[in-house]
Amino acid sequence: MNARSLILTCSLAALLMLTAVGRVCAADLNGPFDAANKLYAEGKYAAAADGYEQAIRQAQAAGVASPVLYFNAGNAEFKLGHLGRAIAAYRQAALLTPRDSEVLGNLAFVRNQVQGATVRPSPWQSWVGSLSFNEGTCLTAGFFWLTFILLGLKQIWPALAPRLRGITQIIICATVLSGAVLAVQSYSHFRGQTAVVTDANAMALSGPYKDAVNAFALHDGAELSVLDRHDDWLQVTDGSGRIGWLPGNQLELLPGA
């Protein structure tokens, strides 16, 4: 067997192995997911929410990101009256499918049920968020390589340079714009962390300890910007600019909007 045949054989074997692993992972996830769907259909929302949470944990362990899991989990949590957990689940689904009308519609509906001050994404953040982080990365990479291909063609065939000048300038501008959007997405994803209140009796305190003075009350489902953390405590700010500390067990952390 020559080197080329050996490479093709190994590549095919690797592809078949990855396909088999993918099928095994899908089979492992379908069990608890289908069981949770059945419980939801029977009106057993608490058990369904637990089932979706189990499926989500298994998906995360397998390196799988499924917006359907988060969407269904959000539906179950909303049926239980857990606004914060529902919003957190819908937002996770929206990060994976940012243009899904059902996800966005349910998220907006639950957000309208939340009382008090809350942090909402700005129009700029909403526009940037219309692409998922992976989509933004692929788009920027595509424009980047297309720019170098066009520049290379102009060097290889100088006669094409006048014809390629206009399209090259457009692609360069698109590369810069998509790169700027990706930079905003990266900051929001890795640094601009937000949190959702999941406790109906949450009270922000003046410091990161239980005996601190009460600062202000927060409602279930309030979305907050995370400013700092100390041990298991998070310093947050709400939509009105108030700042306080909350224990982590009263919040669910999310990447930025």
For the structure shown, list the relevant keywords:
single chain, 257 residues, alpha+beta, Serine Threonine Protein Phosphatase 5, Tetratricopeptide repeat, SH3 type barrels, five-stranded antiparallel sheet, two-stranded antiparallel sheet, 60% helix, disordered N terminus
SSE class: alpha+beta
Distance between the termini: 53 Å
- Write the CATH architecture name of the largest domain: Alpha Horseshoe
Helical segment tally? 8
Q: How does the major sheet shape up?
A: 5 strands, antiparallel
Order of helices and strands: HHHHHHHHEEEEEEE
Shape: globular
Number of beta-strand segments: 7
Q: What is the total domain count?
A: 3
CATH homologous superfamily descriptor of the largest domain: Tetratricopeptide repeat domain
CATH class of the largest domain: Mainly Alpha
CATH topology name of the largest domain? Serine Threonine Protein Phosphatase 5, Tetratricopeptide repeat
Tell me, rounded to a whole number, the average pLDDT.
81
Low-confidence stretches: 1-27
Order of neighbouring strands in the sheet with most strands:
6-5-4-1-7
Q: Strand-residue fraction?
A: 5-15%
Radius of gyration: 24 Å
Helix proportion: 55-70%
